[in-house]
Amino acid sequence: MAVNPQESEAIFAERFVKIICVGAGASGLLLAYKLSKHFNNYSLTIYEKNDDISGTWHENRYPGCACDVPAHNYTYSFEPKHDWSSVYAGSAEIKNYFKAFSTKYHLGKYIETSHHVDGAIWNEEFGEWHVDISDTRNGRKFRDNAHILIYATGYLNNPGWPDVQGIAEYKGSMLHSAAYEESVNLEGKKVALIGSGSSAVQILPAIQPKAREIITFIRSPIWILRTIADEPKPYSDAEKKEFLTNPEKLMHLRKYNEGVMNSIYSLYIANSVLQSLTRPELERQMRETLRDPYLEDALIPDWAVGCRRLAPDTGYLKALKKENVRVVKGGVTSFYADGCVDDKGERHAVDVIICATGFDTSFVPRFPVIGRDSRNLQDVWAKTPSSYLGVGVANFPNLLMSLGPYSPVANGPTLASIEAQADYILRAVDRYRTEPIHSFNPTSAAEADFTSHIASFMSRSVYSDKCRSGHKGHTVDGRVPTLWPGSTLHYLQAMQEFRGEDWEFRYTGNRFGFLGNGISHAEFDPTSDLAYYLKNEDDGAPLTRREKMKIEFRSGSQPERTLHFTYRPDIINLPERKVEKAEIVKQSSQSDVSGLKRDQSSEKRTGKFMKRLRKWLQCGDDQ
């Protein structure tokens, strides 16, 4: 009996793959979109613990909550929004962007809200994850299974309450910036604001006009960049309409903003010229605004710019000088029924306490994740988190992550990094479903080498300076900063290739089973060109990484620009000797940096850069 070859048995045949994603924030929604756009023969379920989507932008509702990135650039690269109300969009508006995205692309069919993941266990025999779920609406518990588990909870999802005595003794209203009760009325109240990070910088000017008195506790200083005005610039109806009718103008603004973000990474290299010239300028601006020795001592850091997240000032510094605001330099050591006690022993009776104390940034999952050989990721990450490129973990098969440890969350545009991770994850999933792969995960050696490189790089960056940072687990030097060792653009290039040699693959049967029945898909496609490889000239894709990258970032398409990364450690890294700014300028102008305009001094370039940066912050993650 004659039998025709079947396309389902052709080379790289696509088998069914079942995927579970934990989290319906920016990463989970993007994953659902890209799966629906590029894949077939799959199922996806996204379990979201909250009663609505959007992740951190659903959870963070504190007064003044906004993104400190210009709104037109806090979007997916392919999904602009023309009608943002303001330069710095509030959390509710950002949440609505993601909800509208979900609605537009019909992503709701993949999402189960109010479903809490209680645990996940890898089953080696079946090559799948068993995931325990609780439906918090009715208390029903059940188990689901998946070939691929994607952990997309982000790292800003677990409020970090002050770890001090007596927190349960306080009888007033105690709020956290990431778990804010909007029903609490601050009118006429005496309020304690604990923290001085990005959230506190936004909260203080928002509540200052309402509260009768505010005591703000500043344990750690923070670099604050003064903007052109005290309030975020609103967009007029005419501007919104022009952005809609003239997409090129909107694209020009987006590219300008993104270009600034992507041009300043040398600021985070210890002893870079940009760091050396930016720091005294920021200090001058802060002193000029504060004009108070006590406030200057409390707010102006003695460590490098960028060690802790640089915050744009939308009224914070001036709010500190208001009559109803009192600054306490130091932290809170305990609570009592009526208030809190500072580290000098002074008791402060207050009606409301707002803890702007950030998040638990340990990365430790909030539920057990049991991988191969009964390893629990909670235990593996108990002291120091680890990962491979922020997307995988050794000994945890078929587990992929978005914004895992050492992702570029403070290196530039975060959503661009999320997109790069989603593409990388789906390339891995596509390899899994088109080969007889039982399981795959990074090798222990690759993860160890990556971790070693991180430590080496961070020792040369400002992130390892003596500041208290969430990237170091809210310690001064308790761990290596869990950040990508380079810029966002650097990360995008690193993620373009799936380095198979860094992964352990286990197969079901012969690894070359993907060769199938010897027939290509072109032969099953009646519309294909069966001689597609014949050409009149060699116009094929580049074969080298450098040429591929040049095409990717459109080398040669833009006017020559001034570069900001002149780097001379031999000139600046001299603790025994004071280096004059003029000497830095003179020596740095001699650096052999391709494309650097030699007719401008570093100081002039940096002056122009600072003006550009301030303009961007007016025109234009650490919650």
Q: What is the CATH superfamily of the largest domain?
A: FAD/NAD(P)-binding domain
Main structural class: alpha/beta
Tell me what the CATH architecture of the largest domain is. 3-Layer(bba) Sandwich
Instruction: Note the overall shape.
Output: globular
CATH topology of the largest domain: FAD/NAD(P)-binding domain
State the CATH class of the largest domain: Alpha Beta
Report how far the terminal alpha carbons are from each other.
Answer: 68 Å
Query: Unreliable segments (pLDDT under 50, ≥5 consecutive)?
Result: 566-600, 619-623
Strand content: 15-25%
Give me the count of strands: 21
Query: What order do the strands of the largest sheet run in, or round the barrel if closed?
Result: 3-2-1-7-19
Helix count, DSSP H or I runs of 4 or more residues: 17
Helix fraction? 25-40%
- Biggest sheet descriptor: 5 strands, parallel
What is the average of the pLDDT values? 89
Which radius of gyration do the C-alpha atoms yield? Answer: 26 Å
**How many structural domains are formed by the residues?**
3
How is the topology of this model organized?
Layout: E1 17-22, H1 26-38, E2 42-47, H2 56-59, H3 91-104, E3 111-112, E4 115-123, E5 128-135, E6 140-146, E7 148-151, E8 173-176, E9 190-194, H4 198-207, E10 213-218, E11 224-226, H5 237-245, H6 247-261, H7 273-290, H8 293-299, E12 311-313, H9 316-319, E13 325-329, E14 332-336, E15 339-342, E16 347-349, E17 352-355, E18 369-370, H10 377-380, E19 399-401, H11 414-434, E20 437-442, H12 444-458, H13 488-494, E21 503-507, H14 545-552, H15 569-572, H16 581-588, H17 602-619
Parallel strand pairs: 1-2, 1-7, 2-3, 4-18, 7-19, 8-17, 9-10, 9-17, 10-13, 11-12
Antiparallel strand pairs: 4-5, 5-6, 14-15, 15-16, 20-21
Helix pairs in contact: 1-11, 5-6, 7-17
